[in-house]
User: Fold this.
Amino acid sequence: MAFAIVEVCINCWACELVCPNNAIVEAKPHFFIAAEQCTECAGDYAEPQCVGICPIEGAIVDEYQKPLNPLGSLIPIPLKQRRETLTVP
Ligand code: SF4
Ligand code: SF4
Assistant:
């Protein structure tokens, strides 16, 4: 039972700050979730905190690789257009 961060992550730190289990690890090219520490926030919060704060659709996936913030679920600006306007470190 654990989520994962995938390549569209922009390394913004938002999820790292809210994880109750310190399961999110800074890394390049993108952050990752230490699976052994991720409880999907069970027992701490009703909703996974990283999923709730992540601004990037598709950056966090479940154990079946299903995006937890799927395309079109956050703001009505296409991902490609947002990537063109972002400065990714
Ligand atoms: S689901 Fe909860 S425990 Fe797992 S990485 Fe996200 S914030 Fe941390
Ligand atoms: S909040 Fe989303 S985009 Fe930001 S570091 Fe976490 S997974 Fe990456």
